[in-house]
């Protein structure tokens, strides 16, 4: 098994209690579109699923428009970009 680094910001960090987490993924890779389900299963009893519904993803500091087109192979840094409000 290999791993990725997940960065949590804003609501995602609040829900997980983390800012960074190493997450093992299968050696054959993992579709980015499957990552939310994996992360929700790692953090039961949170509202992480709802946070992901309005979040975007970044892989190695590049915003991802369509998570179904990206396969994580290991070693990537994946950020959960939550909407923020301010004034």
Question: Tags for this entry?
Answer:
87 residues, alpha+beta, Ubiquitin-like (UB roll), five-stranded mixed sheet, two-stranded antiparallel ribbon, 3 helices, 24% helix, globular
Your description of this structure?
With 87 residues, the protein is an alpha+beta fold. The chain has one domain (2-81): Roll (Ubiquitin-like (UB roll)), CATH 3.10.20.30. It has helices at 10-16, 35-42, 48-53, and strands at 2-8, 20-25, 30-31, 56-59, 62-64, 71-72, 77-81. It has a 5-stranded mixed β-sheet. It has a two-stranded antiparallel sheet with strand order 3-6. Strand 4 (56-59) and strand 5 form a beta hairpin. The termini are far apart. The mean pLDDT is 95. One of its GO terms (molecular function) is molybdopterin synthase activity. It comes from Coprinopsis cinerea (strain Okayama-7 / 130 / ATCC MYA-4618 / FGSC 9003) (Inky cap fungus).
Outline the biggest β-sheet: 5 strands, mixed
Q: CATH class, anyone?
A: Alpha Beta
Order of helices and strands: EHEEHHEEEE
| CA-atom Rg in angstroms | 12 Å
Helix content: 10-25%
In short:
The chain has about 90 residues and is of the alpha+beta class. Helix content is about 25%, strand content about 35%.
Please give the structural blueprint:
Blueprint: E1 2-8, H1 10-16, E2 20-25, E3 30-31, H2 35-42, H3 48-53, E4 56-59, E5 62-64, E6 71-72, E7 77-81
Parallel strand pairs: 1-7
Antiparallel strand pairs: 1-2, 3-6, 4-5, 4-7
């Amino acid at each position: 098994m290999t791993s990725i680094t997940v960065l949590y910001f804003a609501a995602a960090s609040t829900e997980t209690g983390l800012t960074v987490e190493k997450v093992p993924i299968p050696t054959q890779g993992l579709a980015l579109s499957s990552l939310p389900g994996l992360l929700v299963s790692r953090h039961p009893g949170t509202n992480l699923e709802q946070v992901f519904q309005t979040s975007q993803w970044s892989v190695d500091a590049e915003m991802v428009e369509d998570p179904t087109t990206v396969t994580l192979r290991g070693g990537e840094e994946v950020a959960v970009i939550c909407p923020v409000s301010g004034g």
